Amino acid sequence: MATALTLLANTFKEDAAKFRTYGTQVPGQYGTIPAADIGGVAAPLGSFYTAWSGPMGKAVDGLGALSKLLGYVADGAEAWDDGVAAQFAATPGRNPLDRWIQQRKAWDEWLKTHPDGKPKEGETAPEKPSDQPPLHYTNTDKNGVTTDVTVKVDGNYDVTEQTVTITDHGTTYTEHTTYGDNGAYNTVTTGRDGSVSTEKVEVDGAGRGTKTITDKDGTTVYTNPNIKDPESPWTKVVKEPPYRPPIGGGGGGRDRR
């Protein structure tokens, strides 16, 4: 839509330029026509062109601004879609690692009462998991978009590092996240345009969190009194402007007594 509006704005701009060229010549479909050739119609046409040149110019400016705005919205929506897709790909219960962990727990429980792993008559044994957890998987959807996920785990099979790459017809979006204690993490995102942004969450012993987001627009900091509470909000930290004493004094001076 942004491209269509740009084309429309250019058309309006060209028409507005035609409106301002009247005088001895009147704009036509394929150039200009001498005013003398159309007699008394030339003057009314000239007035019409003059009256519409101003509104047409404003329409051009408005369409140009709207085109840029829709372009920004499209870029933001694309980044948001990629981020949602990356989070969905790594959501617990939707990836092979989580399924393997659940199978491992079920199998361990089964072995407590069936040391040989074999079911008794009338029983059905749970599915035996593989010896090693799946740490990499990939999927290509019907639209040709490929999602690739690689994870690293600790001795308890908790994820310590994760990389999600989405490849969409020649463009690539990547999120690389390292996880710390108490919900802390650090994510580095590389967008389809090659831009890099970071999101870092630090958590103290009391569960208070500080989130720092750095992207092309700068750095923004948020705080949360309790990140373990899903209802606890992240609040943006507003920087106070530096104090500047008024011109001509007012800042006080040293006490020379």
Keywords:
257 residues; alpha+beta; two-stranded antiparallel sheet; 3 helices
What does this structure look like?
This protein has about 260 residues and is an alpha+beta fold. It has 3 domains: about 1-75, no CATH class; about 95-135, no CATH class; about 135-240, no CATH class. Helices cover about 35% and strands about 30% of the residues. It is built from 3 helices and 11 strands, in the order αββααβββββββββ. Strands 3-4-5-6-7-8-9-10-11 form a 9-stranded antiparallel beta sheet, with helices on one face. It has a two-stranded antiparallel sheet with strand order 1-2.
Total strands: the figure is 11
Number of domains: 3
Largest sheet: 9 strands, antiparallel
Spans of at least 5 consecutive residues with low confidence = 67-80
Strand order of the largest sheet: 3-4-5-6-7-8-9-10-11
Mean pLDDT: 75
Helix/strand-derived category reads: alpha+beta
